[in-house]
Amino acid sequence: MAEFLANIILKGQIECITGLHIGGSKDKFEIGGVDNPVIRDPKTNYPYIPGSSLKGKLRTLLEFDLGLVKLDPEEGNYPPSDEEPIATIFGSSTEDKPNGPTRLIVRDAHPSKDTVKMWESLDTELNYTEYKAENTIDRMTLAANPRFIERVVKGSIFEFEMIYSVYDIDGGDYIKNFKYVIRALKLLEHSSIGGGGSRGNGQIKIKLAEPFVVRKEDYEENNVAYKNSIKIETNYDKELSNFDYNIINEKIKIKK
Question: What is the pTM of this model?
Fold first, then answer.
């Protein structure tokens, strides 16, 4: 039996250093000439970053970093790893979960208010985005094959939230695996998100707010720790390179 102890709530911003492309449905995109549209919120029509895309890229980067990526000789591909700490942090495809529930939840990342204002003033033919023209060259005929990629413009900022859950089966070292989440975010800054990363798309910079720790008793008592964690206004002033784990160690001490 695994007993829930606390949630570590990590809020942050993803700034696009270069244009960002995360693909959407072309069937629902009516502007002519765009071969690869971005994904959009159907309610607002704003581009966003799906939590599944962000979580998947973090998982992949960490698997390679930890040397856990193995070739499946029958399928000829590299399936997601079910080894530790990946399975505990990101989830496992097997029914047997001896280490309890998946620890990490990643929310969809939506544009900040300032970003929406910037998008609305863009001088572009598209709705809040830009074209990027790319060419592929036929090696036999040397003929160019142009295509147009839709991208979120550089300077756009998306706000994200991750929740990392702590259980008593974590053996007292409650943030051992959480450190891998920060490690994966660091790797992401030196990689890319979305399509065309090797062609210049998807370079990002991450800033964080001070993490909140909401313990089991904080939910029960509806106290300040819980109420502060759901505030809308947040200061994103912490670089990944300066992340202080001691803050969480102090806040997460479990009362016996």
Answer: 0.88
